[in-house]
Amino acid sequence: MSIVVFVLIYGVSYGLILCLLSIGLVVTLGLMRVVNLAHGAFAALGGYVAVSLGTKLALPFPLAVMIAVILVSVFGLLLERLFFVQLYRSTELNQVLQTIGLTYIAIGIFALTFGPNVFPVKLPSYMLGSIKLGEVDLEAYRLVVASASLVIITALWIVFDQTNFGARLRAAVDNPSMAEATGINVRYLFSVTFALSAALAAFGGAIGSSMFPLEPFYPFRYIVLVMMVVVLSGRGNIKAATVVSVLIGISETGVRLLLPEIGSFLIYLVLIALVVWRPEGLFARNDAT
Amino acid sequence: MNAESLSSSKTLTRYKLKWIEPVIFCVPVAAYFLFPERLALGTSIIVLGLFALSCDLIIGFAGVVTLGQAMYFGIGAYSAALIAKYVWTEAISGAIMSAAIAAVVSAMLGPFLLRLTKLPLLMVTLGVSVLVYEAANKAVWLTGGADGLSEYQLSPLFGYFRWSIFGHTKYLYVLSWLAIVYYLVRRIVSSPFGVTLQGIRENPDRMLLIGCPTLSRLVVAYTIAGAIAGLAGAVSAQTDAFVGLGSLGIDTTLDGLVVTILGGIGTVYGPLIGAPVYVLVKNFAQQWDPYYWMPAIGALLVVVVRTGRAGLVELLDEGINAIKCAIRRRR
């Protein structure tokens, strides 16, 4: 019984971080159609900045994370204006190539500034303890991370599905010229969304830095998992992205614990089968295709 | 459309030998005599060029944007190593056998993968290659896991040319393979089949409408590309006397892709120009710091994709045209 709870808690927290890492891409790729392979670099940047702020300036962890998220979103906004704007109308191959180029640059810079090895993360002491829940010990860190992610994801879902901003964004994506004709500033909308997506990645990278260790090749290490989440969640569907990531998190934790020999192999096999089976997304309705 | 008007169309003029092609092949021959102490580097450039030819064929000509070509490179490499270790030590038949194994795998996967397009295709090809990587990592009894395979030896080529440490045989061996494959790829892309592929790249629905079985054409192209990648892997395993997990990794896929783009995607000789540029930039940058090459190559990649679609080849062509115009004006 306790093992089930253990797998559930670890899997859900892992899945929620994965969701934070991918959800920005779910939005930019699913809605704006930019195959941004450099998305992981925003997460890594967020993690690096937050952790170095925490260690160098001795800022408290939550404050360091917040500053990192703000810095990365400003950086994302700049990069969108200077770089990604030209990518919206390119072919997939060109998007892939240019974002790979960008990722190479990022990896080089990370390696030169933060060193080629895993960057040590120091968590505040109140996150290191564990809480006894029934018969299982739970790391406080996992609980904090899971609840913070859940709050952010819910807020995002409300913004996208329930507010005027979300409605305008969906309109801009469905038909940019018509949206422009009705007075929606599409360029501005895309910029804000892009910065938001970078901020989400940075948040995921910062608070998840103990589960997803920071190292220069971070942007490529998790790109397969992140992209699987994006493909399986279909066109910019936040709810589907959350469900898919949590399912991946739980099954990955479970399989690694119970069948460590073939762990990641099995996960990838299932994910590939799912993508081949439902290339439009796991929960896509058939009439939508 | 009659034959005459077709032969003047852009795709078919590739039958004509461009001046640049013999020049490209003169360079490695000259390098053989000029830099006899750098033959190992030259061998790796040629192997990379061979691998990039496969990426060029499938991505540049057939328009299948795959991120999984390293899988076939790795399969070819491991096959060649295993053949040399346990079956027979003759190199040429070993390389052909390895290419055939890679071709069989790609022919089996092709019908599943090529039904997908765009993002799912990208993801599934990437995912499958990660899957094969993980499988090779776990199958230690076959692949040696993280240690890789080594300690295999080939018998002298044609029973006469020894695989000396100076690398003369290796260099000429891979160069001959490159020449053969280059000739074949050239013939393939300018054949009616090759033109069909380019048609599918430009507009798959239209090709389907005029009665072209696009899926089976793409599977054939994918199989050929898989065989070439397998061959590149095989000769790399034979000349390095080592195969590691790196041959299956995403890095290898990206190497091939970047080389193709830098040289000029959609031209047969682009990869042969991209490979030396890529390896030399990487080598020079690495002399300062092992990580300097990544920003350098990344920036180069962005610049090339931004400015010209056809990479260094087109820049070269434009430069030559400019010179020609200047000369004409003088007259």
Average pLDDT score of chain A: 83
Specify the overall morphology of chain B: globular
User: Regarding CATH, which class of chain A?
Assistant: Mainly Alpha
How many domains of chain B? The number is 1
Count of discrete structural domains of chain A: 1
What is the helix fraction of residues of chain A, given as a range? over 70%
Share of residues in helices of chain B: over 70%
Characterize this entry briefly.
The complex is a heterodimer of chains A (about 290) and B (about 325). Helix content of chain A is about 70%, strand content about 5%. Chain A is built from 13 helices and two strands, in the order αααααββαααααααα.
Question: What would you note in describing this structure?
Answer:
The complex is a heterodimer of chains A (289) and B (331). Chain A has a two-stranded antiparallel sheet with strand order 1-2. Chain A is mostly helical. Chain A has helices at residues 2-30, 39-56, 61-82, 92-114, 125-128, 140-162, 164-174, 176-181, 186-207, 218-221, 223-232, 238-258, 263-277; strands at 130-133, 136-139. Chain A has 13 helices and two strands; from the N terminus they run H-H-H-H-H-E-E-H-H-H-H-H-H-H-H. The model of chain A has no long low-confidence stretch (mean pLDDT 83). Chain A has one domain: Orthogonal Bundle (ABC transporter involved in vitamin B12 uptake, BtuC), CATH 1.10.3470. The termini of chain A are far apart. By secondary structure, chain B is mostly helical. Chain B has one domain: ABC transporter involved in vitamin B12 uptake, BtuC (Orthogonal Bundle). In chain B, 74% of the residues lie in helices and 1% in strands. In chain B, helix 3 crosses helix 12. The longest helix of chain B has 27 residues, at 214-240. The two termini of chain B are 39 Å apart. The chains are: A mainly alpha (289), B mainly alpha (331). Chains A and B meet through helix 4, helix 11 and helix 13 of A and helix 6, helix 12 and helix 14 of B.
